[in-house]
User: Fold this.
Amino acid sequence: HQCSRTMFAASARVLLRTAPVVVVGQGVVACKEAYRRPTGPSAVLDVADDLAHYPLTDPAKTVTERRTGVAFPCTSDGLKLAGCGVRAKFGVVPVYAVGLYSEPSVRAAADDALRSLAQVDTALRLTLVRHLGATAFLKAIEDQLATRVADPTQLDAFVDACLQVLPDKMPSGMTTTLTLKPSGHVTIVADGRTGATVHAPDVATALLDVYLGVNAVSPPAREAILQGLAAGL
Assistant:
């Protein structure tokens, strides 16, 4: 009903001013501080429709990945969360939640996301939702990278660097952050501990493709992140 939609749009305007986080699309929960407010009545109604169907997250400055319940901070080391999703084995068994962070200035359409992110600092935050050995965790990532990395020595260097940082047994809830630099350097940090850095530009490019390419390992995460980048979240 148009009247009801108009009334809800007014409520949406209040929420946009007051809520710390808002939902702006399927699978995309945006931190209010990073949200670009829409213009025009139709844009407000679109946001109102989204708010009607998707609940707000915890008022703390975090975003909760719905399927796993993993909370992602809206910002991390000066980067802002674009979106998050779940990596599931065979598409059924959740293994980890993944979020992508980029520089606040980044705003890119889906067909330009990989090129845009390669030019700025980007981070992938992976939080386990089941216990895994480091070997199994890395093997799954290595298998995805192997078909995307032209120089195998770079992949070997990346895996070796990961093994320096990751414990043999990785408990549920453990977070691994992969920070990608335009220079091609990749830094691996586990639960905030001192990490290792390797120069592997092929790996940096391939990691972005693993999560944002047409054959991404998590289509829901890809969709959420691309929507976030397009909205300039």
Notes: Residues 1-30, 32-59 have pLDDT under 50 and may be disordered. DSSP finds seven helices and 13 strands in the chain. The two ends are 30 Å apart (CA to CA).
